[in-house]
Design goal:
Structural class: alpha+beta
Largest sheet: 5 strands, antiparallel
Number of strands: 5
Helix content: 55-70%
Strand order of the largest sheet: 2-1-5-4-3
Order of helices and strands: HHHHHEEHHEEE
Length: 258
């Protein structure tokens, strides 16, 4: 019982700490359970193996209260995982019922049987808590991934419906992305341009790409796949992402010329 109570008490601490810092009411709850069990365990050490309901009471009640506190705190943490939470609740209820039954059984054989069942069920409680944490982590990661996908879709929608040509290039000036308007104006497909065409090749004249931290604004002439040239206003700015240097071009067409 000492080892099982200690494990239950540590589990309760972990559940509380997972959601928030220890508040005064948490400290009172944990301290009360610990003091009750220490008193009950000390009494059992002095008197020997409990032989009556009264002797079982001080050592059993703190363990029952601890498991009930785990159930209560688990419910209020709003764990999203379903199967792990069900297993956790069932195993905790089983242990609480077994330990409560120790107070009412009459025969020594039943006491040993219940204690044996308690020993068997407790590892299931620990495993259920671990499973719940794994499922909860999986749920949170899935939510993050879904939110990332939604954000990427929203960003792609905004870029593809922009009134300006938007390009991104790597440090060497190789095209990495561009929007639908860029594809329409230049006449190339993604397969023909992405990581295959240098930004300099889209300009008519001696343009040389340089990554600069400050925003660069210039007027230039660019050329499409069909050879048509058109005047543009270009804004370019470099940035660093995950240690890699990139640049973004925002290009506004001014007039077309042949």
């Amino acid at each position: 019982f000492f080892l099982q109570f200690s494990a239950s008490w540590v589990l309760l601490c972990a559940i509380i700490r997972k959601e928030s810092k220890f508040r005064p009411d948490h400290k009172i709850l944990l301290s009360s359970l610990l003091i009750l069990f220490v008193i009950g365990f000390s009494f059992s050490v002095v008197s020997g193996f409990p032989q009556s309901k009264l002797e079982w009471l001080p050592i059993t009640l703190p363990a029952v209260f601890t498991v009930l506190a785990i159930l209560w705190k688990t419910y209020h943490t709003k764990i999203a995982a379903l199967s792990g939470r069900i297993l956790l609740v069932l195993s905790a209820l089983s242990i609480a019922s077994i330990r409560a039954a120790l107070l009412v059984v009459e025969s020594t054989e039943m006491v040993y049987l219940l204690y044996y069942l308690d020993v068997l069920v407790f590892p299931i409680l620990v495993s259920a808590l671990v499973l719940t944490e794994i499922e909860n982590a999986h749920f949170k990661v899935s939510e993050i991934l879904r939110e990332k996908i939604r954000s990427e879709k929203n960003l792609k929608f905004a870029l593809n419906n922009s009134l300006d040509i938007i390009l991104t290039v790597n440090n060497a000036g190789l095209l990495l992305t561009w929007n639908n308007l860029a594809e329409k104006v230049f006449g190339y497909t993604d397969a023909q341009t992405i990581k295959k065409i240098h930004i300099d090749d889209l300009f008519s004249g001696n343009y040389c790409h340089k990554n600069e931290d400050r925003e660069t604004v210039l007027d230039a002439v660019m050329e499409g796949r069909d050879g048509k040239k058109f005047a543009v206003n270009v804004r370019m700015k470099a940035f660093i992402e995950d240690g890699e240097s990139y640049a973004i071009y925002v290009i506004k067409t001014r007039e077309k010329s042949h």
